[in-house]
Design a protein that fits this description.
The structure is a homodimer.
Chain A lengths: L16 H15 L2 H4 L5 E4 L4 E9 L5 E2 L2 E2 H14 L4 E12 L4 H17 L3 E10 L7 E10 L18 E4 L5 H9 L17 H10 L5 E4 L4 H13 L2 E5 L7 H10 L12 E5 L1 H12 L8 E7 L6 E4 L5 E3 L13
Parallel strand pairs in A: 5-6, 10-13
Antiparallel strand pairs in A: 2-7, 3-4, 5-7, 8-11, 8-12, 9-11, 10-12, 13-14
Helix pairs in contact in A: 1-4, 3-4, 6-9
């Protein structure tokens, strides 16, 4: 029989005494900061400058825990990364929980602890939140939404209608693709062998901050999550109306990921990442940016993987390791739901 | 057989071509604005002033459509109201969707259309979003998270450690409690009679703006949602360390709500609202605030329902219509999950 005191009940979501206790004991305890502790309907937050970055992401990853992280760490890093690639300094996060009745409160504590730890490491505060409980069978364990606000101190990044990507620019990638997706697949138990593969789930904010500083003005920056690096490359080509040429032999490789992908018939370039960023920088800045990347743990395997061309606009061409060339298409279908 | 082209498939959540089409056809089409149309990882947003309000809410209401609204309208109004009662002018919203595989795209369009309409009426923009799809049976149809940012032009409201509520202050309520909760119960088909009861789901921002202007400096302001007005009253008493005395005969009544609550053995004071606000104002300002409330549709049944006392600190005492007095306790358990 379940110890109901240690499991989420429907009453934890009703706005009453038990919800208040859950918020006090778990969330305020872990996320402790003055903005949140006020427990007003909104957090009132100081901002500097004339522009902020604002983003949102819901996390439904299954399983909740995997080598290299869990849904909580992912929910913080994922949103931080969306802010960082927008040229912003992440500062405030919200956290919205949808929890299935019967969920173990100890597990919730572990997830919340990971969120708090990751937020603290990154110098961001979780300042506002919400908790909903649904009946058993009406959601799968726990879903977390994080929305984030970042301050824009200096705009080193071309964005929106001002995007500036041009022929000759270099394309940089900070490490081997596909680690998150394959770590999740491995945790789902589909391989009959063991590996030490971990998700690359990490906050890229410190790396990106240095990359932006080292570049004169960065042309494009995006974290490659769902759809993998192929999807980001196609996005650059489409959005900036340029061609991209990528050299497969220059793309860093994780051997475990390559083997797992071969077994499943997948291409690592389409597999989800949670700690990979693609940057387009002026040819003259590329080496400087690469140098600062190599000094960071999150960029130690960084490489220049290709360049922008004036040919085949809107398309990404991959020079394969076999010496051929092929179009790197947009992702149509895949077999990896709930990867984040 | 399902027309798969008109239903959400797992591929709509994979970051690829079908997800892009869904975002373009449904979300960008409905929410159309420059910030969102940029489709960057974060929206880059101008802000004025030194402080912003930031809040988040997930919506899991069941059923999705009910008299007076649907999950989409609720998701916009609910977050706008949290910003408004914080003394902020709502300006930007995010929208995060978790959708069950097989969900009807026409229904999604109706929900999204409601969101767009409600945002337009309130002068806010939905500037960033996220879509996740989970396998059939892993969530209940659709859950929506909205996070919101408001600008704080003038601080007419005491908040956080500066809360100023004192003996003699008047407690104002803008209309009869319990309409949202009972409208949901009615839609669930638990009553064997018909009524015209509608949810009070509405943006309170215009009303609150006028209330704040009419008050010198408002002591406390909160929308009464889950847990009903009793929960807000208890919160004021606890947070401000004062006693409250509320006169039951002064609380506006919706006859349908009263009858339904009697049938179910519920107290309307604990039933959820989505368009009700409780304000604590200085005695000398109370009539002025009430006057501006009465001029608005959302405040036409507003009333002074009680006052702050120096007795029984931390407690709310209800003078009942029968002439007695009883403590209005905090909500412990209830029978109304997924009301919002």
């Amino acid at each position: 029989m379940k110890d109901t005191a240690r499991h989420i009940s429907i009453h934890h979501g009703n706005g009453g005494v038990r919800m208040k206790a859950l918020i006090d004991d778990i969330f305020l305890h872990a996320f402790d900061n003055d903005f949140l502790n006020n427990q007003s309907d909104s957090a009132i937050l100081p901002v500097t400058g004339k522009n902020i970055a604002f983003t949102t992401d819901s996390f439904v990853v299954d399983p909740l825990f995997f080598p290299g992280g869990n849904i909580g760490k992912l929910a913080v890093c994922g949103t931080l990364n969306d802010l960082a690639v927008s040229g912003a300094r992440p500062i405030y996060l919200s956290a919205g929980f949808i929890i299935e009745e019967g969920f173990n409160i100890r597990t919730l504590e572990r997830i919340v602890h990971s969120m708090a730890k990751e937020a603290a490491v990154s110098g961001v505060k979780i300042v506002t939140g919400d908790t909903k409980v649904v009946n058993s069978g009406k959601c799968d364990k726990i879903f977390i939404n994080t929305s984030g606000i970042g301050l824009i101190d200096d705009m080193h990044l071309s964005i929106g209608s001002g995007i500036r990507v041009k022929s000759g620019d270099k394309i940089l990638l900070n490490g081997p693709p596909g680690e998150h997706g394959m770590a999740i697949m491995q945790t789902r138990g589909i391989f009959n062998f063991k590996s030490n593969l971990k998700s690359d789930c990490v906050s890229l904010s410190p790396l990106i901050k240095r990359m932006l500083k080292a570049s004169g003005r960065m042309g494009f920056l995006r974290d490659a999550t769902r759809g993998g690096i192929a999807t980001v490359l196609n996005e650059i080509a489409g959005k900036c109306n340029v061609g991209l040429e990528v050299d497969e032999t220059c793309i860093p490789v994780n051997t475990d990921v390559r083997v797992m992908c071969e077994l499943l018939g997948f291409d690592p370039l389409y597999i989800a990442n949670e700690g990979k960023v693609i940057a387009v920088v002026d040819d003259s800045d590329a080496d400087d940016v690469l140098k600062v990347m190599h000094k960071m743990k999150t960029g130690k395997n960084a490489a220049i993987i290709g360049e922008v061309t004036s040919d085949h606009k809107g398309k990404t061409v991959l020079k394969t390791s076999a010496g051929g060339k092929r179009i790197l298409d947009e992702l149509v279908g895949d077999q990896l739901p709930r990867i984040c």
